[in-house]
Structure formats: structure tokens, C-alpha cells
Amino acid sequence: MTPAAPKKEEASPEYQSHEMERLVNQLLEESAAAGLAFTQSSRLRVNMGNIYYEQKKYTLAVKMYRMALDQTPNTHKDIQYRIMRNIGNALLRLGRYQDAAQSYEAVIEIKVDHQTCYNLVVCYYVLGQLEKTKSILVKMLIVHHYDSDDENDDIEGDNSAALRNDGLRVELCNRQSHAFKYILTSARLIAPVLGNSFVEGYDCLIGMLKDQQYIALANEMEMDKALQHLHRQDFTQAILLLKTFERKEKDLKARAATNLSYLYFLEGDHANAEKHAELAVKTNSYNPSALVNHGNCFYIKIGHLYELLGNYNQAIKWLEIVNTRVVHDAGILAMLGNLHVKLGDEPKALHYCYESHKVYPTNMDIISWLGAFHVKSEVYAKAMPYFELASKIKPADVKWQLMVASCYRRTGQYKLALAKYKAILSEHPENIECLRYLVHMCSSLRREEELERYEQLLREAEKSALRGSTGDIRILAARGEKVESGSSVNYKQQHNSQTLLEDRSIHDTERAHTLELVYSFLPAETTTMSRMPTEGRNDNEDWPELGDDLLPM
Q: Where are the transmembrane segments (predicted)?
């Protein structure tokens, strides 16, 4: 005969929990009537609490644990200690951090152990009581190490394998491993917020670990400090810290070399990337990260060789293999963009340069190329954000601000352009290019008073530049123009001489540097601004032209 199926309410977890609690209470009553020892009834309460804890019914678990604690006399400190730790764990799960902290504090008054101290550090961290987290970490550090005897460290002879696999020795090693894990996790948690800066917090904790002879953990914290610098994109400090591991033990040396290889790879320094990848592989030939770094370096080398041979398609093929394995690598994307520029495939070049910019937005070469590409396409509104970003990255370099102002001028935003030129002049009062554009704009906008003032400033700036530049004097002398000390230079004459000055741009170091920077990705046939298309330009524009250049240099 088939048994009847259980009722729906009897199959629910709530019904089963209540039924279990009823059976436990009945068993406790029978135990009390039989005169059983307190430990049996207390153990039943603890087991019931453990069941509720596993079912994530933490409130009921706390209730059972407290009932068990009330039944445990003060003579059984070890049992009280374990029950109070269970209460703290359940309260922590409930998010009652203050109550959990009080329970853990009572526990460590009886016995200090690493797990309880770690949980207490978490509670104080959430509550924002950082000084207490530091004091608890100190207590963790002074707990007895689970180190094996020194005599057994170098075991030799026929019984060495048996002694090394001894149960007690294995247990001590496991306890030491867990203790190190709790200490290291606690230190990593509070180090970034312990001092006025994360560096101060790490230095404080590293000093504490070294004082208590936790040398291995101190080294781990130094490695973590270097990684924190990487997360904050402070690559210089990260490299300096990682290089200090080259003089330390084998495992740390290999890990540092792996990180350095990847860091140099991201920065495009493939020679150093390969050097440290080889060091990491030599130290540990089974290190997967080191092997990946080493393989990527070989792919880059092959791609670069094809590029040198002029076989850009093969170079792209090998670099795309790297790109599929190292996703979102700004350096690889930039190299692919450069190769597509050389092939004349501007849409793909734009795609790769844009993707590289999204990953690493402060690469000035990429910013320059993207801005120049949109200028070449006469989409000045899209070029402007790149030049604005460049001016923020290099605020002392005036040419980027002049490019922003020129974009305003080309998009017809004359008021914004004039305001930008005035702002540039306030920071660089002797910049001749800025003064020239202010003169042109004030003349076009018929601002006579401002025009006279800027013309006077321009004449003074030009005379000052001529006095300090023997190269310009030679050019004027070659044209038969007499330049005397203290004499004024006619602005129109100086403007007319601009073409000659631009033809001999080799003497103009700032202009040459800017052209090289802005067009470093472009093929040779497009590396001068005079070759930009002028189609779509307003031929009726009544501003005086400054040569064939669009952007001031």
C-alpha cells in the first residue's frame, strides 16, 4: 500500500523548523526528568542553534545559543567561549555589528584567537572605530605562533618523510596557515584607511609586522602596497617598490618580476617587459602569468619585425593575436592604430586609437592624433574635447590652449574664442601667437580700443623676441630689412615675413616639436598642416590668414 503524501504545510521549511524545535524541547524535558547532566541539554541547544545557523535563521540561532550559554556554569570557560563566539557570528550575519563586537570582546577576554580577532576587526571597521581595529590587530600579532620546533625543520635520514607527514606537524602547519590568513586579511582591510594616506597606513602595519617577526607577512604587505600604487595609476612608485623585491627570496622575486613585466608591457616598454618576463620564467617555469607575459613579448617582437620590414599586414596579424589574449591593452591598441594609419585605413585607425584612448585617456600621442584627425576632417567640435584634455594634462604647454581657441574660432563661436585668447594672454602675457589672434579678432569685431592695446602689446612682444633671437635677426637681414636696437618692428612687415619663417621651421623648435607630437601617427605625406584639406572653409572670411596653418603653434 502506497503511503499517503505529506500535507503541503508539513513539507514547508517553517513547519519542519517548528517541529524540530518541539522535539528538542520534548527531549530536554525528558532529560531533565531523568536527571541528565547539564552538558547534554546544553549541547542539544547548541546543535539546535547550529542547525538554525546553517538554515540562515540567525535570530533563532542566537536564541538557542543564549539558552545554551545560560545553562553552562562558569567553571566551563572553554564551552562558554565557543558559544559566545557562535553568538557573535550570528549577530554579525544579522548586521548587528555593535552587539557582535560586544560578544567578541567577551570572547577574547577568555581566550584570544585569530578568527575571533579577525571578526572583531571587521565589526570595528564597519563601525568606523579604526583605533580599536589597530589595537585588536596588535593582539592578533602577540598570539603564540604555530611554528614547529627548530630541530625538526631540517629533518634528514630514513624517517624524514614520516616525520614531515606527522599528524601533529601537519595540524600545526594548518593552524599557522589560517592564522597568517586572518592577520594578512585584517592588515589589508585596514591599511588604506588607517593613516592620513594609504602609504602611511601600510608603512605603520609593515613596521608592526616586522617588530613581531612576521617577516613573510610584512613582505606580502609591501607587495600589496605596490599593487595599491598600480590601482591608483602611480606607476613610478609601483615600479620602485617592485624593484626592491629583486633582492629578496625566490618566490617574492618571481611575483615582483611578473608584475613588473606586465607593467612595462602596459607602458609600451617591451624590452624591460621581456627582461622581467624571462626572469620570472627562469625563477618559476610553471608560473602561468609569467609564461603569458613572455609569450606576449614574443608576439610583439614578431609584429615589430614585420613592421620594420614594411609588411604591415603581417604585423597587424600578430598584434591582433596579442590583442585577443590581452584584452583592452592600450599600448597594443595604439600600435594597431598606428599600423592602420600607415596602410591608409583611417576608419580602422580611428577605431583602435579611440579604444586605446578609452582604456588609457592620458596618452598624449593618442590625444594628439585623435584631435588632429578631426581637424583634418574639419569636425572641429569633436576635436575640441581632445585639445581641452591635453591642456589639462599639460597646463604649462600653451599650444593646446591655443588649439582649443582656434576650434572655437573655426566653429563660429567668436565670443568664446576671444574669451579663451584673453585667458591665455593673462597666463602667458608675451605669447606672440595669442596676441596676433587677438589683434585679428578685435579688428574683425571692430573693437578699436582693445585693438590698439593688443597691437601695442604685440609690437612690444615682437621687439622683445627679436632682441632675444639672433636667428630672426639674420632672416630679416637677409631680406634687406634693417633692425636696430630699440627700434619698433612694423606688424605688417612681421606678418609678411611669417611665410619665410615657416619655410625654415627647423629653427623654430617649438613648432617642430608640436608637429612631431600631433602627427606622430600620420604617414610622411600628411605630416604638415599645410596639406590639410581646405574644402568647406569660408572663403569670404575677412580675417587675415596666418599662412596655411589652421592651428597656432
A: none
Could you tell me if 215 and 252 are in contact, meaning their C-beta atoms sit under 8 angstroms apart? no
The pLDDT score that the predictor gives to residue 26 is 63
Distance, in Å, from the CA atom of 132 to the CA atom of 135, rounded to the nearest integer, reads 5
Would you say 257 and 244 are in contact if contact means Cβ atoms under 8 Å apart?
no
For 419, the grid coordinates are 574669451
Q: Do residues 420 and 408 lie in contact, with contact meaning Cβ atoms separated by under 8 Å?
A: yes
Residue, of 189 and 37, whose pLDDT is higher: 189
Q: Over pLDDT 90: what percentage of the chain? A: 9
Task: Judge whether 216 and 193 are in contact, CB under 8 Å.
Answer: no
DSSP letter assigned to residue 503: H
| 298 SS3 class | helix
pLDDT tens per residue, range 277-306: 877 888 777 778 778 777 777 777 787 778
Alpha carbon 56 to chain centroid distance? 37
SS3 call for 504: coil
pLDDT in tens, 408-464: 988 889 889 888 898 998 888 888 888 888 888 888 888 888 888 888 888 888 888
First-to-last alpha carbon distance for the chain, in angstroms, is: 98
Is the pLDDT at 537 greater than 90, yes or no? Answer: no
Say if residues 407 and 384 touch (Cβ distance below 8 Å). Answer: yes
CB neighbours of residue 14 within 10 Å: 9
- Quote the DSSP letter at residue 95: T
Residue 431: count of CB within 10 angstroms of its CB: 20
How far, CA to CA in Å, does 473 sit from each of 467, 469, 478, 480, 529?
8, 7, 9, 11, 26
CA 432/CA 544 separation, integer angstroms: 16
Cα(360)–Cα(364) distance, integer angstroms: 10
pLDDT for the residue numbered 228: 85
H or E segment to which residue 491 belongs: helix 491-496
Percent of the chain with pLDDT over 70: 72
The runs of H, that is alpha helices, within 394-478 are 398-410, 414-427, 432-444, 448-467, 470-478
State pTM to two decimals. 0.52
Q: Name the residue among 240, 250, 316, 238 with its Cα closest to residue 283.
A: 250
Q: What is the pLDDT of residue 254?
A: 76
